[in-house]
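note to self: dont lose this again. the chain is below, predicted strucutre after it. 360 aa total, dont forget to put it in the shared folder this time
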Amino acid sequence: MLLELTRWLEQLQSVFGLFGYLTFRGILSALTALALSLWWGPAMIRKLAEFKGQPIRQEGPQTHFSKAGTPTMGGALILVTVLAAVLLWGDLRNKYVWVVLAVMLAYGAIGWYDDWIKIVKRDPNGLKSRWKYLAQSVFGLAAGLYLFYSADIPAATTFYIPFFKAVALPLVSVSFVLIAYLWIVGFSNAVNLTDGLDGLAIMPTVLVACALGVFAYASGHAQFATYLQIPRIPGAGELVIICAAIAGAGLGFLWFNTYPAMVFMGDIGALALGAVLGAIAVIVRQELVLVVMGGIFVIETLSVMIQVASFKLTGKRVFRMAPIHHHFELKGWPEPRVIVRFWIISVVLVLVGLATLKVR
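---
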């Protein structure tokens, strides 16, 4: 929106040409989302507090019972500010911008309905799993189909292996759509599973979004993509604006979500942000790198899968409680210690993922 205005103003004053640079608009996007989050946050929290907060699961750690009544659905603040920042500073003629925004809003709607059931009907289980996964699957498959059939270069539908510059697997429609589906739906649920402690999910999300922004910028830049030997995806650079907006909005949300939280993210934020990370990774062809950088989300998900499989097969639990962050809580770790240590692990994993830009 403002990008079009600055393009017109550039004809009158060359200084406005500065707004044509992705890096400059990315900074503005992050600052805009951060400022809007801090501005709108208190009012939104007061409004959400009217709904008496999300009920706490009885089978959860006893230390969480004191959190009953904390407002939830705070993820709406993230989505609104990201949307505002992208509409202001993004190139709205770019198809990838609209694909990612559509994924964010679609999964946000699923999460909103899930949270609404928890709050209004006082049901901590929310939307039935089968209906939630059905809706996620529909939107995940739709995004995968669009990305495959709108691809205009082979690189956009090729599967790349990090660390091996000569390994690239061309994908047919079924395999591409399946991978897109697994990454979008999988990371949507993975971030949701991680969102169990104050600030635990949002900081890794910010870190991964920043790193994906680096990949998006390099992939959309002909010289950088050639030099780094990564797939060149024309137009992918514009995703920097979305990644920056997520970083800014995430930090703004963390202002209110840090321990002890004034507001919870809720499924509306967790499902949407995870799906967006998956969609961006698919677009820039860095699916496996996302698995590395988002390792905290992967570990949390695997801990649940291992726990369920072990209990069904042997009747025994591997962890004291799953997801794994609850395991460490029950071992006696204070909640802030679990959170910060998981953040540190996330920083390390993101750095490892960024290292793949050169180690090829």
